[in-house]
Amino acid sequence: MTDRSNGYERVAGEFLAGRGSGKGYGIGTNEVRAWATGLPRGAAVLDLGCGAGLPLTAVLVEAGLEVAGIDASATLLAAFRRRFPEVPAACEAVEDSDFFGRRFDAVLAWGLFFLLPARTQEGLIARIAERLNEGGRLLFTAPAPQVTWSDAMTRQPSRSLGADRYRRLLAAAGFGTVREYEDEGENHYYDAMLEGRR
Questions:
Q1: How far is CA 66 from the centre of its chain?
Q2: Which of 87, 114, 152, 181 has fewest C-beta within 10 Å?
């Protein structure tokens, strides 16, 4: 049977003891907080690959956003539901999800894209665009170079399509302005706004 969590169900205990505990793992929180505060209060935000919800879902909730989460690890999602019982959450792989059958004002996919096969990443950008309201925002992370490596926790292959390819995919899906920046952990961000569907 295929592991739809890309190895994270197997290492869920280790993850929960580390970044999933929210203690001392604040990398990305400043960037996500700045992004979240730029959204209208009460905006509907989909957290793809939400894991256990710490620290980033907590940042979204604290910003007064209407959050929903999706993660393919049953163990991580159970921890998410205990921490955020009021937040809708679905245990499913992003490539199989219908994203709750609704539209959102913004989508966050921190540390997710590069875990997926190249074709899945390409299709995911277009699918996210279809579920965003006009002017909707997408924030995701992936290294700027085109590179393949082994995930530090799962040892499964990770792959970045590279900034040039991500920019082309975003443009093809109707995203206009794309800002790029990095955090102190050298995570590369793509912060895109949907300007029109193609």
A1: 16
A2: 152
Return the amino acid letter for 42: G
Amino acid at 19: R
- Angle (nearest 5°) at CA 115 between 196 and 193: 20
- pTM over 0.90? The answer is yes
Q: Chain-wide mean pLDDT for the chain? A: 92
Taking the C-alpha atoms of 34, 29, 58 and 48 in order, what is their torsion angle to the nearest 10 degrees? 90
Strand 104-109 with 188-194, pairing: unpaired
Calculate the alpha carbon distances from 164 to 110, 111, 112, 145 in Å.
19, 19, 18, 9
pLDDT one-digit tens code per residue, 111-146 = 999 999 999 999 999 999 999 999 999 999 999 999
Contact 11, 44 (CB under 8 A): no
